TrEMBL record:
Protein name: FMN reductase
Residue ranges of every copy of the NADPH-dependent FMN reductase-like domain listed in the record: 3-157
Gene Ontology cellular-component terms listed: cytosol
GO MF annotations in UniProt: FMN binding; oxidoreductase activity
Domain of life: Bacteria
SUPFAM superfamilies per record: Flavoproteins
PANTHER family associated with the record: CHROMATE REDUCTASE, NAD(P)H-DEPENDENT FMN REDUCTASE LOT6
Length: 194
C-alpha cells in the first residue's frame, strides 16, 4: 500500500515561495509512489492559541479537522518560510492547536502519534530559510513526531522554479528527491514495525 503523505505550506500569502515548494514536493512524492494529499492552511483558519479560549469553547473545529487529517496520514511534508530566523506564526499556531487534541468525541485522537515528518524551507535569500527549520524541528520533536534528517531548502526562491513548477537548480532538485524518498522509506519502515 502506498504511504499516505499530507503536504502543506507554512504560509498562505499569495504566491508564497513555501507554497511553490510544497507543490514541487507533491510532484516528487507522487513520482516516488506516495499517495499525496495537498492542503492549504487558509482553509483551516484558527484563532490565536489561548488556553482560556480552549477552556471556554474547546478546541476549534478547524483544529479538529486538521487533527483528523494528520491522524489519517502516516507522514507529513511541511514546507515553511522563515520569519526573522524562525517559524511563521501561522504554522506555529496550527501546530499548537493540533497538539491540544486528545479526543474526538468518544474516541482517542493523537494527531502526532507515530507521525514521520519531512521538512522543506524556502526564502529569496541565500540562507534558503534553513534557520527557521532548526526551530521547527524543535517544536515538532516536542509534540512527539519523528523528523527525518534529509531536508530541502530552496534559496533565491523567486528565481528557483521553472514554469512547470519544477526546481530549476539541479542540486536543489536532488535535495527534494532525497527528502521525499527518505520520508517515504521512513513511513514504510514505521508501518512495517507496527
Amino acid at each position: 500500500m502506498a504511504p499516505r503523505i499530507l503536504v502543506f505550506a507554512g504560509s498562505i500569502r499569495s504566491g508564497a515561495f513555501s507554497s511553490r515548494t510544497a507543490d514541487a514536493a507533491v510532484k516528487e512524492l507522487a513520482l516516488q509512489g506516495a499517495e499525496v494529499t495537498r492542503i492549504s492552511l487558509a482553509d483551516y483558519p484558527l484563532p490565536i492559541m489561548d488556553e482560556d479560549l480552549e477552556k471556554e469553547k474547546g478546541v476549534p473545529e478547524n483544529a479538529m479537522r486538521l487533527g483528523r487529517m494528520f491522524a489519517a496520514h502516516e507522514g507529513l511534508m511541511i514546507c515553511s518560510p522563515e520569519y526573522n530566523s524562525s517559524i511563521p506564526p501561522l504554522l506555529k499556531n496550527t501546530i499548537d492547536w493540533v497538539s491540544r487534541i486528545s479526543r474526538d468525541g468518544e474516541h482517542v485522537l493523537r494527531p502526532y502519534a507515530g507521525k514521520i515528518v519531512g521538512l522543506c524551507s524556502s526564502s529569496d535569500g541565500n540562507y534558503a530559510g534553513i534557520r527557521g527549520l532548526y526551530h521547527l524541528r524543535s517544536v515538532l520533536m516536542n509534540v512527539g513526531t519523528q523528523i527525518i534528517t534529509e531536508q530541502c531548502s530552496v534559496a533565491r526562491a523567486s528565481e528557483a522554479f521553472n514554469e512547470d513548477g519544477s526546481l530549476r537548480d539541479e542540486r536543489t532538485a536532488k535535495m527534494m528527491t532525497r527528502a521525499c524518498i527518505s520520508l517515504i522509506e521512513h513511513v514504510q519502515m514505521a508501518s512495517f514495525r507496527r
